[in-house]
Amino acid sequence: MNSMDRMKELIEILNEASRAYYAQDREIMSNYEYDRLYDELVSLERDTGTVLSSSPTVNIGYEAVDELPKERHESPMLSLDKTKDREALKDWLKDMDGLLSWKLDGLTIVLTYNEGKLVKAVTRGNGEVGEVITGNARTFVNLPHVIQYKGELILRGEAVISYSDFEKINAQIEDVDARYKNPRNLCSGSVRQLNNEITAKRNVRLYAFTLVKADGVDFHNSRRAQMEFLNKQGFETVEYHLVNASDILDRIQYYADAVKDNDIPSDGLVLTYDDIEYGRSLGRTAKFPRDAIAFKWQDEIRETKLLEIEWSPSRTGLINPVAIFEPVELEGTTVQRASVHNVSIVKELQLGIGDTITVYKANMIIPQIADNLTRSGSVKIPSKCPACGGSTEIRRINDTEALYCVNPECPAKKIKLFTLFVSRDAMNIDGLSESTLEKFIGEGYIHEFADIFRLSRHKEELCKLEGFGEKSYNNLITAIDQARKVQLPKLIYSLGILNVGLSNAKIICREFDYDIDRLKHASIEQLGAIDGVGEVIARSFTDYFGDEKHLREFDELLKELSIEIPELDTGNEAINGKTFVITGSLEHFENRNALKELIESKGGKVSGSVSAKTDYLINNDINSNSSKNKKAKELNVRIITEADFMEIAGEK
Q1: Residues near 42 by Cβ (< 8 Å), separated by ≥ 6?
Q2: Rounded CA gap, 155 and 157, in Å?
């Protein structure tokens, strides 16, 4: 393969990895592997003198998702050039003073304050266009809502979730498959929620790292003075230290020692010139500003021997590969396991039992395989499920291969499925832990969901079980009886239909007017046409209710339950039965979801795109030239502001 072909191959691999990481909150390769391939691409571009327009060395990120309003940044938010060499950091600083701070691993947010109040918060997005998350930002636990400075203040900060909060939140998610992989993914999902009540429960914190604008304040040409100013306004700033060539190496070592016990996720350091005007005078390249540089930790890598691949089944049938290797010391702890994530990575690393592999801790925390030095490729993908012995199959989803058990009666699926069924966001039945469910299933008391509501038939036997006396039995039956009254979306979610989360279940139930019979007989076309559902979820839904066994079990379950149907206020004919599209930023509502719920509570529908079926487009900028405005005008759809809508809704 010639250099140009290799460059094209690397660009495709790296762009797909970036798209997954930034736009879809998933990871298809380790940070180590990404950096290695990125450095190879940079070297090839330097050697060939060619840089392709699609190269990640010139492009900055990917487009923000469509679920939140978008807004263009006044000036592009560039990435930073980076190094792993401590001496290179010292050489970059030369004889200048600099600010050395943590490079936090979360989601970058641009905040704007006017007249002392937060008026706007926008995510970094792709560096040029971000998502407006003002309502969510107001729930950040350490963000000041009112500050002393009354002029226009613009700053950048990193929204993060601490490791300790990450562990607590993950522990509350009983379904292991639904747990988040790392704090950054949890933070990204939390900050970009459509419902800021969820954000408020996640303990998101924001650490300011750059002051962009504060007219009329004399900072004496010092970045440190800007940070001190932000502190005085009530912002928590990222930990920083003033350094020069004589002490920067000692200060880097200070951070290296501190990162092991740091509760805030960090993937390196940032060095910025303290002299503001000097930094500005340096300008920028197409991709990087020249007044700052990032330092990434030199990963501590150890060689070890791969002993086995453990295949761990889950409720969805997904079987996750986990590497077991000879124990090694990494970053002060003993490590002997690392997730391999999926079949694609097993194949990419050409893993084989007895192979010599190198391992490291991503961000000095999460064990990962860096490389396989032997590459024997002898690991066989199991054709039988380790839990039930049933057949397995490899499925390709989003260009990634993963292994699944196809046996619907697999005990691993059953236990995990029933654990989801009783979890807080589903049927919310206290007293049925995974171990208790495993015991009841093993004893033959539970075969299907309805059996949980018939456990009183086995009172005598249950009270005799070890560790489960009459008091435990009575508490459990009380919890079960309380769960009989349930909202339909929670019931649908509790069934464990592949790809159908609670938010999807709510959307589907609303679309079919909470009519269970219509839900059971919905077609792929009907479901796929619902904004926010799509073909993948539609197919999962219809496959589930197209199965006679599932239908019979669902009907049996319904006999035990009382379904709560929300009452709609359909008296307002200007809203009831009408279809709305919402676009742009909002002023009167915390977020778009709050407005959407009000519309739906009055019998209206909310769609994501303007069509001939649209009755109103809500946009505070009526005269904008946005694509939705243009489409609305072409179709003679009425464009109204929030204030107009509130008047129609009788909310003024």
Answers
A1: 57
A2: 7
The residues of the chain scoring below 70 in pLDDT are 21-26, 50-54, 58-67, 172-179, 286-287, 315, 331-332, 363-365, 398, 442, 531-532, 568, 652
- Rounded CA gap, 173 and 170, in Å? 5
Q: In degrees rounded to 5, what are phi and psi of residue 577?
A: 80, -5
Rounded Cα gap, residues 309 and 399, in angstroms? 22
Residues 6+ away with beta carbon under 8 Å from 287: 57, 58, 60, 78, 79, 81
CA distance 299 to 364: 7
Report the pLDDT value the prediction gives residue 315, as an integer from 0 to 100. 65
pLDDT digits (tens, 9 = 90+) for 346-385: 999 999 999 999 998 875 567 889 899 999 999 999 999 8
Place of tokens 């970053």: 331
Of 3.30.1330.10, 1.10.150.20, 1.20.58.340, 1.10.238.10, the CATH number of 411-564 is 1.10.150.20
Most distant CA atoms of the chain, gap in Å: 82
Q: Which residue's entry shows tokens 């990481």?
A: 21
In terms of DSSP bridges, do strands 605-607 and 579-582 run parallel, antiparallel, or are they unpaired?
A: parallel
Cα–Cα dist 27/34, whole Å: 11
Contacts of residue 224, Cβ cutoff 8 Å, sequence gap at least 6? 99, 240, 242, 274
Question: What does the alpha-carbon distance between residue 508 and residue 517 come to, in Å, rounded to a whole number?
Answer: 13
Confirm whether 305 is a catalytic residue.
no
Nearby residues of 319 by Cβ (< 8 Å), 6 or more positions away: 311, 312, 313, 382, 385, 386, 392, 402, 403, 404, 405
pLDDT digits (tens, 9 = 90+) for 381-405: 999 988 788 899 999 876 788 899 9
Bridge partners, residue 153, by sequence: 113, 214
Instruction: Using the Cα atoms of residue 66, residue 67, residue 71 and residue 75 in order, give the sign of their dihedral.
Output: negative
CATH of domain 302-405: 2.40.50.140
Does the domain spanning 3-48 belong to CATH 3.40.50.2000? no
> 579-649 domain in CATH 3.40.50.10190?
yes
Burial readout 163-176 (b: 16 or more C-beta within 10 A, e: otherwise)? eebbeebbeeebbe
Question: What's residue 79's pLDDT?
Answer: 77
DSSP 31-45: HHHHHHHHHHHHHHH
Asked if domains 302-405 and 411-564 share a fold, the reply is no
393's tokens: 């199959």
Q: Which of 103, 361, 490, 506 is catalytic?
A: 103
Nearest to 159 by CA among 186, 126, 182: 186
Tokens of 428: 């919310």
The residue ranges of every structural domain in the chain are: 3-48, 70-295, 302-405, 411-564, 579-649
Q: What angle do CA 431, 436, 439 make, to 5 degrees?
A: 155
Q: What is the DSSP string of 177-197?
A: GGS-SSHHHHHHHHHT-SSHH
Q: Hey, what CATH class is 70-295 in?
A: alpha beta
